[in-house]
Amino acid sequence: MDFDDLNLSRTKFSAAEDELLRKTVQKYGAKKWNTIAQHLPGRTARQCRDRFQNYLSPDLTNGPWSHEEDLLLLEKVDEYGSCWSKINKFFDGRSPNNIKNRYNTHLAKSKYHSKKHLKKVAPSIKKEEENECDVIKFDAVVTAKLWEAFNSQDYFSNNLDLLFIFD
């Protein structure tokens, strides 16, 4: 049995469906998804719930992410891994899906590349450790702040020598 047999839709929600979903949730509350889905032909309870909770809820903040939110997200991913529902408790107005997408599309790659690059250059810097290089251990928040400074003009104008060590 597939979507075609059940006459269910796998297409994007239309503006009309979004409006109907908002009104139906307002009428029945945000818990009776089977009842709500009966008012949206071709949509399952799960589709309705996911659409509302991740995109349409008036409690959601869909604006740009602040630098502080990004730092908090890096810290919480280090603490909880990819358990987005736990991490979500630290973010007012952000859905677990929004948090996961922010991490995977904007932060995971930069975090991975920075660690990969620093581990690659660390052995050559380690030889200078005793003479010229400061060795510093960082947690995720400090790392993000220092990495930002490292990429700014201030780092290059100050000619700082640092060895980054990640646990």
From TrEMBL:
Residue ranges of every copy of the SANT domain listed in the record: 8-59
Domain Myb-like, chain residue ranges per copy: 5-56, 57-107
One family name in Pfam for this protein: Myb_DNA-binding
Keyword Transferase in record: no
Organism: Trichomonas vaginalis (strain ATCC PRA-98 / G3)
Location of the HTH myb-type domain: 5-60, 63-111
GO process annotations (BP): regulation of DNA-templated transcription
Recorded GO MF terms: DNA-binding transcription factor activity, RNA polymerase II-specific; RNA polymerase II cis-regulatory region sequence-specific DNA binding
Entry GO terms, CC: nucleus
Keywords for this protein: DNA-binding, Nucleus, Transcription, Transcription regulation
Protein name stated in the entry: Myb-like DNA-binding domain containing protein
